[in-house]
Amino acid sequence: MIKDLDSEQKYSRTAYADGPRLLADIGATHARFALETAPGVLRAVRVLKCDDFTGIVPLLHSYLADHAGTRINHGAFALANPISGDMIRMTNRDWQFSTDEVRRELGLNTLLIVNDFTALAMSLPGLSGQDVMQVGGGAPAANAVIGVLGPGTGLGVSGVIPTLDGFVTLGSEGGHVNFAPADEREFAILQFAWKEWPHVSNERLISGPGMEIIYRALAERNGVATAGRSSPDIITGALEERDGLCLEVLECFSGMLGGAAANLAVTLGAFGGVFIGGGIVPRMAEWFATSPFRARFEAKGRFTDYLAQIPTYVIMTPNPAFYGVATILSEHLRGRSGANTLMERVQHLQHELSPAEQRVATLVLEHPRKVLGEPIAEIARLAEVSQPTVIRFCRSLGFLGLADFKLKFASSLTGTIPVRHSQVRVSDSTHDLSAKVIDNTVSAILKFRDQLDVVSIDRAILLLRAANRVEFYAMGNSRVVALDGQHKFFRFRIPTSAYGDSHLFTLAAELLKPGDVVIAISTSGELPELLAAVDTARAAGADVIAITSSKSALAKKASICLAVDHSEDSTTFLSMISRILQLLLIDIMSVGISLAAPEEGEPDARRLMISHLDL
After folding, report:
1. Range of lowest pLDDT (33-37, 339-343, 407-411)
2. Burial class of residue 279 in the structure, from the number of CB atoms within 10 Å of its CB (0-12 exposed, 13-18 middle, 19+ buried)
3. pLDDT of residue 222
């Protein structure tokens, strides 16, 4: 668990070599900041009121004003808001901003923005018994799902799912599910809220503003004249003044929270426990321990015994979201394989570049997404340099060219999607198996992207552009890929054939000549018939491009190997993901061929064919 700088162990931890990291937990009411100087070490913790600022940039500048001489390269913010894409529009505050523009404004190399309860959920595995207060019975199961919810200005909801190599957090907006009353009194409160909103979510009532609504609703129901009270005043009135109406509000509030926690527990199967965060419940922790919360949590009819096994906790340690957001940032930086440091490399080497290359570097640092998405001609125009200068800039950084630079650069801007594999099981529902198939494929494609051999692809495209004839050899599941390639290449006016029968492609190989190209496709790369046909083709003077495993016999026999090293159990299932990766290589080569300028006398169809590709 992260502790403040006064921790006795603060000097025993190694400081970050690239300087402190900026952490923030920004809610609708308060924004909390800290500098993480080493793993688990915070300093300069400060709380600011959001009402004192017109936007997130003035808020950040106010905090950083005290650290003007400190170089900060990386930052991560937890935000009480759904996070989707670069543009953020806050739900409970009239602020909107571009993540990338804020990153540039602060001069950061990295800026991650995550949902605040995603960050809080990531903090849970690091909490100890001293950081929480258990309410009621139950014991956590090992390696089980954990739920978390917390009332504050809104109601945050998330969860943590253990995996073989860590934890996955849920990006959830579960606070916006419909509020369901459990008795006549809660129904009266719901009716009162309906006067203001046609849709009443849990967040409308199980939150600080919701507590104030409960107070007004119960006052009306009880015939008590009141001007209303703020949620801090209600807590004070109940616990210190023993005001009857305020106590009734807390009873309703804790019961509603118990019902919401129970719903989350049965939805997630949260046998690792349900944790209560946010700023409200810890203020009344001693009273809350004996409140109606736990009784309502277990009041689930046939599922009472189920819920009685699940422990519930109140998070008592201050600023737990700092731990979660720091963990997310560390995982991001550690998992970039150097890609995230690419911005740093550009920044550090900028002064060593030529004046023209420095203009390209400035464009990369100030408008990274534009550089990633635009062709070389537009990049050169925006930087006011020639196209060869753009290439020289990329080579000065150690890349082969712009394509190689963009490939490594892309992941530093799009963030990490964990490369995971989830086994499809017989018991899976259609929803589960659909999600697993899609997630497995997306993860494999991203891993494949990071491992692409751009040099081999360039060589393959050059061979195909000059080919007199192209023949595809494949059997079984890979034959679909060969037919797709034949369909695409034939439209380039290249004589093209596809053979899926071992006897036929052996005969066809004997007729090849120098200048012809064979594209041999095989997941295993060990089929004897295919290997024999490739030997025949090479003996006839033809070149062979192999789409296969890099360590296979076929790869060793080929002129060029385009590696697909995704392993699948093909004894039980078809090689689904490998086939998709093979198809991607066909598409990459097709686009590469279509972008070639036509030689003199060559029809324009090859150059313009990209508009007809089914990509």
Report:
1. 339-343
2. middle
3. 92
